[in-house]
Amino acid sequence: MRLGAHISVAGGLHKAFERGREVGCETMLIFTKSNRQWRAKPLSEKDIQLFQKTAESNADIYPVAVHASYLINVGSPDPAIWEKSYDALKIEVERAGALGLPLLTFHPGSYTNSDEQTGLDSIVRALKRLLAETAETAPHTTICLETMAGQGTNLGARFEHLAYLLEKAGPSPRLGICFDTCHVFAAGYDIRTPEAYEATLAEFDRIIGLEQIKCFHFNDSKFGLGEQKDRHEHIGRGHIGLTGFANFVNDPRWANFPAHLETPKTEKDEAGNEIEMDPVNLATLRSLIR
Ligand SMILES: [Zn+2]
Q: Which CATH superfamily hosts domain 2-287?
């Protein structure tokens, strides 16, 4: 697999490459705008050129994937929130397209005070419009629905939800799945042993199709199987454990697939010194490769 992490773009999008290289990324996940804000200054021609030039001189770090803002909820029954979310998601896809980035992951959404089916259909409506309206601005960007933990009214924790969304909004080669290990495990699908891993992938294949997986988020889980809590832990220190991750990194089906850490960035040692944790987690993952 190609292993990497979620890397900060503070100081400019192109700065991510230098940071990513420092921590040992073969691939990266970035925000192209602030994840806590709806709006963003449009990308200038200069921003795009600088990013693309830096990407060219760091061509061994690929692919660069985008994570959309956490504010977006196209599962919302509130028309104002839905519109705002749709516009924000479209901007995210257009920015990824302008930068030439092949993958954009977003959280499918929450149904809040409506119900599961209404929420799913709101997401379908957004995806259909999104595919049509970004067909020219981001033709080579695949929009990935992230597997979710199932907290609150979050949709996308059941494989059936994701299958429904992909089928009703598409099928389209521009849609896919981002498989988050912590979320899938929290949603109740075991991946800890080779047998459990194979059974979960077989179920994924039966319901969604393994060919829909485009990328991974590698996070261990602070909580147990099926607890539906989305709390990421360092690799090997949570309830998934090292054997769980060994299952993924040694699976030839994922040989060239990108996987990104979204684990805590730092930790204090006994002396109170801050340790950078991305290099530690990447080294742990690499040590599992047989
Ligand atoms: Zn994730």
A: Divalent-metal-dependent TIM barrel enzymes (3.20.20.150)
